[in-house]
Amino acid sequence: MVEKTQRNNSKSVISLTLGILSILIPYIGLILGVIGVVVSRKATKEIVKTNEGGSGLATSGLICSVVGIIIQLFLVVSIIAFYSLTNVG
């Protein structure tokens, strides 16, 4: 009774990696998050078409990328607000 394991889509692994990095790396994480969202969407479409595994990885990559984008946008806006308020007078 040997089970045939299903291969994971490589783009889904890449999207999860980019999503995690977008949370951890300041400033560059914004760009990594956008790339992670694009790769995750491509991976999801490819998984449906080829019936590969890794749909959970692609979904978690999408979630991590979106969270990373939100965190990075908050960071950039807060730094801009800080510098604009401290240089008032």
Shape: rod-shaped
Structural class: mainly alpha
**Mean pLDDT figure:** 91
Helix tally equals 3
**How many strand units?**
0
The end-to-end span amounts to 76 Å
Q: Indicate the radius of gyration in whole angstroms.
A: 17 Å
Helical content (DSSP H or I, runs of 4+): over 70%
Number of domains: 1
Strand content: under 5%
Give, in order, the helices and strands: HHH
Task: Describe the model.
The chain has 89 residues and is an all-alpha fold. It has one domain (10-86). Helices cover 79% and strands 0% of the residues. The protein has helices at residues 10-24, 28-50, 55-86. Helix 1 runs antiparallel to helix 2, helix 1 (10-24) runs parallel beside helix 3 (55-86) and helix 2 (28-50) packs antiparallel against helix 3 (55-86). The longest helix has 32 residues, at 55-86. The model has no long low-confidence stretch (mean pLDDT 91).
